[in-house]
Protein backbone atom coordinates (compact mmCIF):
# COMPACT_ATOMS: atom_id res chain seq x y z
CA UNK A 1 0.00 0.00 0.00
CA UNK A 2 1.36 3.42 -0.97
CA UNK A 3 0.31 6.78 0.46
CA UNK A 4 1.26 10.02 -1.27
CA UNK A 5 2.25 11.56 2.08
CA UNK A 6 5.28 10.97 4.26
CA UNK A 7 7.77 10.62 1.40
CA UNK A 8 11.45 10.65 2.32
CA UNK A 9 13.13 14.09 2.28
CA UNK A 10 14.74 14.94 -1.05
CA UNK A 11 12.59 12.63 -3.17
CA UNK A 12 11.00 14.02 -6.32
CA UNK A 13 7.41 13.48 -5.25
CA UNK A 14 6.06 13.51 -8.81
CA UNK A 15 8.51 10.77 -9.89
CA UNK A 16 7.85 8.81 -6.68
CA UNK A 17 4.08 8.86 -7.17
CA UNK A 18 4.23 7.98 -10.86
CA UNK A 19 6.65 5.13 -10.12
CA UNK A 20 4.26 3.80 -7.49
CA UNK A 21 1.38 3.96 -9.97
CA UNK A 22 3.27 1.71 -12.40
CA UNK A 23 2.84 -1.22 -10.04
CA UNK A 24 -0.47 -0.09 -8.57
CA UNK A 25 -3.42 -2.49 -8.74
CA UNK A 26 -6.12 -0.34 -7.11
CA UNK A 27 -6.28 3.40 -6.55
CA UNK A 28 -8.83 4.95 -4.19
CA UNK A 29 -9.97 8.38 -5.40
CA UNK A 30 -11.34 9.80 -2.14
CA UNK A 31 -14.07 12.37 -2.94
CA UNK A 32 -15.47 14.66 -0.27
CA UNK A 33 -18.16 17.36 -0.40
CA UNK A 34 -15.72 20.08 -1.58
CA UNK A 35 -13.65 17.91 -3.94
CA UNK A 36 -15.12 19.26 -7.17
CA UNK A 37 -14.95 22.93 -6.19
CA UNK A 38 -11.68 23.03 -4.21
CA UNK A 39 -9.45 25.94 -5.26
CA UNK A 40 -5.78 26.80 -4.90
CA UNK A 41 -4.29 29.91 -3.31
CA UNK A 42 -5.05 31.88 -6.49
CA UNK A 43 -8.71 30.95 -6.51
CA UNK A 44 -8.35 28.57 -9.48
CA UNK A 45 -10.24 25.30 -9.33
CA UNK A 46 -7.67 22.58 -8.62
CA UNK A 47 -9.28 20.04 -10.93
CA UNK A 48 -8.60 22.39 -13.84
CA UNK A 49 -4.86 22.42 -13.10
CA UNK A 50 -3.16 19.56 -15.02
CA UNK A 51 -0.15 19.78 -12.67
CA UNK A 52 -2.25 19.26 -9.54
CA UNK A 53 -1.10 16.06 -7.84
CA UNK A 54 -4.59 14.63 -7.39
CA UNK A 55 -5.41 15.26 -11.04
CA UNK A 56 -2.07 13.79 -12.11
CA UNK A 57 -2.48 10.65 -9.95
CA UNK A 58 -6.01 9.83 -11.09
CA UNK A 59 -5.32 10.61 -14.75
CA UNK A 60 -2.20 8.41 -14.72
CA UNK A 61 -4.08 5.55 -13.07
CA UNK A 62 -6.93 5.75 -15.58
CA UNK A 63 -4.48 5.82 -18.47
CA UNK A 64 -2.67 2.74 -17.11
CA UNK A 65 -5.90 0.72 -16.69
CA UNK A 66 -5.54 0.72 -12.90
CA UNK A 67 -8.75 -0.16 -11.06
CA UNK A 68 -9.74 3.32 -9.87
CA UNK A 69 -12.41 3.22 -7.15
CA UNK A 70 -14.20 6.50 -6.36
CA UNK A 71 -14.72 6.56 -2.58
CA UNK A 72 -17.54 8.96 -1.65
CA UNK A 73 -17.31 10.42 1.84
CA UNK A 74 -20.33 11.05 4.05
CA UNK A 75 -23.03 11.20 1.38
CA UNK A 76 -21.01 13.04 -1.26
CA UNK A 77 -22.67 12.77 -4.68
CA UNK A 78 -20.66 11.28 -7.54
CA UNK A 79 -19.38 14.07 -9.85
CA UNK A 80 -20.87 14.30 -13.33
CA UNK A 81 -18.83 14.23 -16.52
CA UNK A 82 -19.35 17.98 -16.87
CA UNK A 83 -17.76 18.53 -13.45
CA UNK A 84 -14.46 16.99 -14.52
CA UNK A 85 -11.63 17.84 -16.91
CA UNK A 86 -11.51 15.65 -20.02
CA UNK A 87 -8.81 13.27 -18.80
CA UNK A 88 -10.71 12.52 -15.57
CA UNK A 89 -14.11 11.91 -17.19
CA UNK A 90 -13.69 8.11 -17.38
CA UNK A 91 -13.92 8.25 -13.58
CA UNK A 92 -17.69 8.76 -13.74
CA UNK A 93 -18.10 5.26 -15.26
CA UNK A 94 -16.40 3.59 -12.30
CA UNK A 95 -18.67 2.09 -9.67
CA UNK A 96 -18.28 4.11 -6.47
CA UNK A 97 -17.96 2.98 -2.85
CA UNK A 98 -19.44 4.91 0.06
CA UNK A 99 -17.66 5.51 3.35
CA UNK A 100 -19.18 7.34 6.31
CA UNK A 101 -17.39 8.81 9.31
CA UNK A 102 -19.63 6.96 11.82
CA UNK A 103 -19.15 3.58 10.15
CA UNK A 104 -15.69 4.08 8.71
CA UNK A 105 -14.13 0.80 9.86
CA UNK A 106 -17.00 -1.41 8.75
CA UNK A 107 -17.37 0.44 5.43
CA UNK A 108 -13.65 0.08 4.73
CA UNK A 109 -13.71 -3.62 5.65
CA UNK A 110 -16.64 -4.16 3.26
CA UNK A 111 -14.79 -2.37 0.46
CA UNK A 112 -11.65 -4.46 0.95
CA UNK A 113 -13.72 -7.65 0.97
CA UNK A 114 -15.36 -6.66 -2.30
CA UNK A 115 -11.95 -6.09 -3.86
CA UNK A 116 -10.53 -9.50 -2.93
CA UNK A 117 -11.80 -11.29 -6.08
CA UNK A 118 -10.34 -8.50 -8.20
CA UNK A 119 -6.94 -8.73 -6.52
CA UNK A 120 -6.99 -12.52 -6.80
CA UNK A 121 -7.73 -12.18 -10.49
CA UNK A 122 -4.75 -9.90 -11.04
CA UNK A 123 -2.48 -12.33 -9.22
CA UNK A 124 -3.69 -15.28 -11.27
CA UNK A 125 -3.50 -13.38 -14.54
CA UNK A 126 0.07 -12.30 -13.83
CA UNK A 127 1.01 -15.87 -13.00
CA UNK A 128 -0.60 -17.17 -16.21
CA UNK A 129 1.24 -14.60 -18.32
CA UNK A 130 4.55 -15.75 -16.84
CA UNK A 131 3.74 -19.36 -17.67
CA UNK A 132 3.11 -22.18 -15.26
CA UNK A 133 2.82 -21.24 -11.61
CA UNK A 134 5.53 -22.16 -9.16
CA UNK A 135 4.73 -25.45 -7.50
CA UNK A 136 4.20 -24.97 -3.81
CA UNK A 137 1.15 -25.89 -1.71
CA UNK A 138 -0.70 -22.57 -1.79
CA UNK A 139 -0.41 -22.06 -5.53
CA UNK A 140 -0.99 -25.72 -6.33
CA UNK A 141 -4.28 -25.39 -4.49
CA UNK A 142 -5.20 -22.40 -6.66
CA UNK A 143 -4.41 -24.35 -9.82
CA UNK A 144 -6.59 -27.28 -8.77
CA UNK A 145 -9.58 -25.14 -7.93
CA UNK A 146 -12.03 -23.23 -10.07
CA UNK A 147 -14.18 -20.42 -8.83
CA UNK A 148 -17.17 -18.36 -9.91
CA UNK A 149 -17.37 -14.73 -8.79
CA UNK A 150 -20.37 -12.47 -9.47
CA UNK A 151 -19.89 -9.40 -11.64
CA UNK A 152 -17.33 -8.30 -14.22
CA UNK A 153 -14.79 -6.51 -11.99
CA UNK A 154 -12.71 -9.63 -11.42
CA UNK A 155 -12.61 -10.34 -15.16
CA UNK A 156 -11.62 -6.73 -15.91
CA UNK A 157 -8.75 -7.12 -13.47
CA UNK A 158 -7.15 -9.78 -15.69
CA UNK A 159 -7.04 -7.56 -18.78
CA UNK A 160 -4.05 -5.21 -18.24
CA UNK A 161 -1.48 -8.01 -18.28
CA UNK A 162 -2.10 -9.10 -21.89
CA UNK A 163 -0.68 -7.89 -25.24
CA UNK A 164 -2.01 -4.47 -26.40
CA UNK A 165 -4.21 -5.79 -29.24
CA UNK A 166 -5.84 -8.40 -27.01
CA UNK A 167 -6.20 -5.85 -24.22
CA UNK A 168 -8.12 -3.47 -26.49
CA UNK A 169 -10.56 -6.20 -27.55
CA UNK A 170 -11.12 -7.39 -23.98
CA UNK A 171 -11.71 -3.87 -22.70
CA UNK A 172 -14.24 -3.32 -25.47
CA UNK A 173 -16.03 -6.61 -24.76
CA UNK A 174 -16.05 -6.00 -21.01
CA UNK A 175 -17.45 -2.50 -21.48
CA UNK A 176 -20.16 -3.95 -23.72
CA UNK A 177 -20.99 -6.62 -21.14
CA UNK A 178 -21.20 -4.02 -18.37
CA UNK A 179 -23.62 -2.01 -20.50
CA UNK A 180 -25.79 -5.11 -20.90
CA UNK A 181 -25.72 -5.58 -17.12
CA UNK A 182 -26.61 -1.94 -16.56
CA UNK A 183 -29.64 -2.44 -18.80
CA UNK A 184 -30.53 -5.57 -16.77
CA UNK A 185 -30.14 -7.84 -19.79
CA UNK A 186 -27.49 -10.10 -18.23
CA UNK A 187 -26.18 -11.16 -14.83
CA UNK A 188 -22.40 -11.32 -15.47
CA UNK A 189 -20.06 -13.57 -13.54
CA UNK A 190 -16.31 -14.18 -13.73
CA UNK A 191 -15.12 -17.76 -13.90
CA UNK A 192 -11.51 -18.61 -13.00
CA UNK A 193 -10.35 -21.74 -14.77
CA UNK A 194 -6.99 -23.46 -14.58
CA UNK A 195 -5.70 -21.91 -17.81
CA UNK A 196 -8.11 -19.11 -18.65
CA UNK A 197 -10.60 -16.64 -17.27
CA UNK A 198 -14.08 -16.22 -18.70
CA UNK A 199 -16.82 -13.63 -18.41
CA UNK A 200 -20.18 -15.39 -18.37
CA UNK A 201 -23.08 -13.28 -19.67
CA UNK A 202 -25.95 -15.22 -18.17
CA UNK A 203 -29.63 -14.58 -18.74
CA UNK A 204 -31.29 -17.16 -16.51
CA UNK A 205 -28.73 -17.78 -13.81
CA UNK A 206 -26.90 -20.49 -15.73
CA UNK A 207 -27.14 -19.97 -19.52
CA UNK A 208 -25.70 -17.27 -21.76
CA UNK A 209 -25.84 -16.56 -25.48
CA UNK A 210 -22.13 -15.74 -25.48
CA UNK A 211 -19.11 -16.02 -23.19
CA UNK A 212 -16.00 -13.83 -23.29
CA UNK A 213 -12.71 -15.74 -23.02
CA UNK A 214 -9.32 -14.45 -21.90
CA UNK A 215 -6.47 -16.93 -21.89
CA UNK A 216 -2.71 -16.56 -22.05
CA UNK A 217 -2.64 -16.43 -25.85
CA UNK A 218 -5.92 -15.10 -27.15
CA UNK A 219 -9.25 -13.39 -26.54
CA UNK A 220 -12.50 -14.38 -28.21
CA UNK A 221 -16.25 -14.79 -27.98
CA UNK A 222 -17.91 -18.18 -27.74
CA UNK A 223 -21.54 -18.62 -28.84
CA UNK A 224 -24.01 -21.29 -27.76
CA UNK A 225 -26.56 -22.46 -30.34
CA UNK A 226 -28.80 -24.21 -27.84
CA UNK A 227 -29.19 -21.01 -25.83
CA UNK A 228 -29.84 -18.97 -28.98
CA UNK A 229 -32.52 -21.46 -30.07
CA UNK A 230 -34.15 -21.33 -26.66
CA UNK A 231 -34.03 -17.60 -25.94
CA UNK A 232 -33.20 -15.64 -29.13
CA UNK A 233 -34.09 -17.67 -32.25
CA UNK A 234 -35.01 -14.55 -34.18
CA UNK A 235 -31.45 -13.26 -33.91
CA UNK A 236 -29.66 -16.36 -35.20
CA UNK A 237 -29.68 -15.48 -38.91
CA UNK A 238 -28.39 -11.94 -38.32
CA UNK A 239 -25.55 -13.10 -36.09
CA UNK A 240 -24.62 -15.91 -38.50
CA UNK A 241 -24.44 -13.43 -41.39
CA UNK A 242 -21.99 -11.30 -39.39
CA UNK A 243 -19.70 -14.13 -38.28
CA UNK A 244 -20.06 -15.72 -41.75
CA UNK A 245 -20.72 -19.12 -40.23
CA UNK A 246 -23.42 -21.21 -38.67
CA UNK A 247 -23.71 -20.82 -34.90
CA UNK A 248 -22.80 -24.12 -33.31
CA UNK A 249 -22.55 -25.34 -29.75
CA UNK A 250 -19.22 -23.76 -28.95
CA UNK A 251 -18.64 -21.61 -32.04
CA UNK A 252 -15.94 -19.01 -31.41
CA UNK A 253 -14.95 -15.80 -33.14
CA UNK A 254 -12.08 -13.39 -32.65
CA UNK A 255 -13.41 -10.93 -35.23
CA UNK A 256 -15.78 -8.81 -33.14
CA UNK A 257 -17.12 -5.85 -35.10
CA UNK A 258 -19.37 -3.11 -33.70
CA UNK A 259 -22.13 -4.52 -35.92
CA UNK A 260 -21.75 -7.93 -34.28
CA UNK A 261 -21.98 -6.43 -30.80
CA UNK A 262 -25.11 -4.52 -31.86
CA UNK A 263 -26.64 -7.77 -33.14
CA UNK A 264 -25.74 -9.59 -29.92
CA UNK A 265 -27.24 -6.76 -27.88
CA UNK A 266 -30.45 -7.16 -29.84
CA UNK A 267 -30.29 -10.93 -29.21
CA UNK A 268 -30.10 -10.31 -25.46
CA UNK A 269 -33.03 -7.92 -25.74
CA UNK A 270 -34.98 -10.60 -27.56
CA UNK A 271 -34.07 -13.07 -24.82
CA UNK A 272 -35.25 -10.66 -22.12
CA UNK A 273 -38.57 -10.16 -23.90
CA UNK A 274 -39.06 -13.90 -24.39
CA UNK A 275 -38.32 -14.66 -20.74
CA UNK A 276 -40.76 -11.99 -19.64
CA UNK A 277 -43.49 -13.40 -21.87
CA UNK A 278 -42.80 -17.04 -21.02
CA UNK A 279 -42.05 -17.15 -17.32
CA UNK A 280 -41.19 -13.66 -16.17
CA UNK A 281 -37.82 -12.65 -14.78
CA UNK A 282 -36.43 -14.76 -11.97
CA UNK A 283 -33.37 -14.08 -9.87
CA UNK A 284 -30.35 -16.34 -10.42
CA UNK A 285 -30.08 -19.29 -8.02
CA UNK A 286 -28.40 -18.20 -4.82
CA UNK A 287 -25.67 -20.79 -5.09
CA UNK A 288 -24.45 -19.11 -8.28
CA UNK A 289 -23.63 -15.90 -6.43
CA UNK A 290 -21.90 -17.23 -3.31
CA UNK A 291 -18.58 -17.56 -5.14
CA UNK A 292 -18.64 -21.32 -4.62
CA UNK A 293 -16.29 -23.67 -6.43
CA UNK A 294 -17.86 -25.25 -9.48
CA UNK A 295 -16.91 -27.94 -11.94
CA UNK A 296 -14.57 -26.65 -14.58
CA UNK A 297 -16.02 -29.16 -17.02
CA UNK A 298 -19.49 -27.75 -16.47
CA UNK A 299 -18.54 -24.08 -16.69
CA UNK A 300 -15.52 -23.94 -18.95
CA UNK A 301 -15.24 -26.20 -22.02
CA UNK A 302 -11.69 -27.29 -22.65
CA UNK A 303 -12.31 -27.34 -26.39
CA UNK A 304 -11.86 -24.08 -28.27
CA UNK A 305 -13.60 -24.39 -31.60
CA UNK A 306 -13.01 -22.05 -34.53
CA UNK A 307 -16.20 -20.48 -35.75
CA UNK A 308 -16.45 -22.64 -38.84
CA UNK A 309 -16.55 -25.83 -36.74
CA UNK A 310 -19.08 -27.24 -34.29
CA UNK A 311 -18.96 -29.74 -31.50
CA UNK A 312 -21.52 -31.36 -29.25
CA UNK A 313 -20.46 -31.23 -25.61
CA UNK A 314 -20.77 -34.37 -23.51
CA UNK A 315 -23.76 -34.85 -21.26
CA UNK A 316 -21.66 -33.88 -18.22
CA UNK A 317 -21.70 -30.33 -19.48
Could you characterize the architecture of this molecule?
- The protein has 317 residues and is α/β, with parallel strands linked by helices.
- The protein has two domains: 90 residues, no CATH class; 168 residues, no CATH class.
- 37% of the residues lie in helices and 17% in strands.
- The protein contains ten helices and ten strands.
- The strands form two sheets. Strands 4-5-6-7-8-9-10 form a seven-stranded mixed beta sheet. A three-stranded parallel beta sheet has the order 1-2-3.
- A hairpin with a 3-residue loop joins strand 7 and strand 8.
- It is elongated.
- The two termini are 42 Å apart.
- This is TIR domain-containing protein.
Structural class: alpha/beta
Give the spatial strand order of the biggest sheet.
4-5-6-7-8-9-10
Q: Residue-averaged pLDDT, rounded? A: 77
The count of DSSP E runs of length 2 or more, i.e. the number of strands, is 10
Radius of gyration (Å):
22 Å
> Sheet with the most strands?
7 strands, mixed
Rounded to the nearest angstrom, the distance between the terminal CA atoms is: 42 Å
Oligomer: single chain
The fraction of residues assigned to DSSP E strands is 15-25%
Helix content: 25-40%
N to C succession of SSEs: HEHEEHHEHHEEEEHHEHHE
Low-confidence stretches: 132-145, 280-317
Shape call? elongated
| Structure annotation, total helices | 10
The number of distinct structural domains comes to: 2
Amino acid sequence: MFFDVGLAPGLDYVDAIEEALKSCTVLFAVIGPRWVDATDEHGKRRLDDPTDLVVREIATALRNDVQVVPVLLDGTVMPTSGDLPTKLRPLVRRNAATVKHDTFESDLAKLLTQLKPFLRGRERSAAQSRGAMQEHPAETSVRQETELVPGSAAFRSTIPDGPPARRELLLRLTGWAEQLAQNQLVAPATFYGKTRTTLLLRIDGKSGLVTVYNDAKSAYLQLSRSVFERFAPGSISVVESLIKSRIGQGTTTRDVSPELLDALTQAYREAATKRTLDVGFTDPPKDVWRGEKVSEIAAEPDLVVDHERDFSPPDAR
